[in-house]
Description:
The complex is a heterodimer.
Chain A: E1 4-5, E2 11-14, E3 19-25, E4 30-38, E5 45-51, E6 54-58, E7 61-66, E8 71-76, E9 85-93, E10 101-102, E11 106-111
Parallel strand pairs in A: 2-11
Antiparallel strand pairs in A: 1-3, 3-8, 4-5, 4-9, 6-7, 7-8, 9-10, 9-11
Chain B: E1 4-7, E2 10-13, E3 19-25, E4 30-38, E5 44-51, E6 57-58, E7 67-73, E8 76-81, E9 90-98, E10 106-107, E11 111-115
Amino acid sequence: QKEVEQDPGPLxxxxxxxxxxxxxxxNSAFQYFMWYRQYSRKGPELLMYTYSSGNKEDxxxxxxxxxxxxxxxxxxxxxxxxxxATYLCAMSGDTGGFKTIFGAGTRLFVKA
Amino acid sequence: GAVVSQHPSWVICKxxxxxxxxxxxxxxxxxxxxxxxxxxxxxxxxMATSNEGSKATYEQGVEKDKFLINHASLTLSTLTVxxxxxxxxxxxxxxxxxxxxxxxxxxxxxxxxxxT
Lengths: 112, 116
C-alpha cells in the first residue's frame, strides 16, 4: 500500500463546475498537508497548505483535512479553463526530517 | 518571494556526454534541496536530498555515481548526469526548503533533458 493514494484521473468538468480532488493516506504521523498545481512542462507550485485537521479557504479554493479518516480534499469553485492542470497532494510530518510524500497527481481538464 | 530557478530549461546532448543542471534559490537560503525526476504523465520521483555542505542522500535505486549532486552553498545545488544515455531523458525538477519553514518546498521550473 502506498503512503499516499491519489486518483490520477483524468477528471473532465465543464467551466463553472465545482471540482473535488481527494487523497487518502496511511501514515498517522503526517501533520502538514499541501496541494500543488502543476501545469504541463512546468514545476509544481504550492497552492495551499493546512496544518493538522480543519478547513482552509483561499479565494475559489478550499482545502479540507480529516485526520480521523486520513482523507484530504481540495475543492475548486467556479472552475475555469485556466485551472486545467495536474494537482498533487503532498504531506509531511515532524519525523523523518519532514520528508514530503507526494500523491500521483490528478489531471484536471476544465472545458469552456 | 521563495523563487527557485533552474538552468538550463531545456538541453539536448549526445549519448555518453555529461550534463550539469543548476538549481538556485533566488530570495531565500535553502538549507535543503531536493532533486526529482518526472516522466510524462507521472508524478514526481524523488532522486536525492541534499543539505548544504553535506553529501546528498540518494533514494533507493538511484545511482549516485551517475547522478552527481553538489550543494555547495545555501543558494545553489547542481545535478550532473554523467555519461548520459537515452533512458536518462526526462524532466528534472529541483525544489528548495528554507530555514524558516520546514514543510514547504518551492519548486524550480524544471529542466527537460533529451539524450540522443
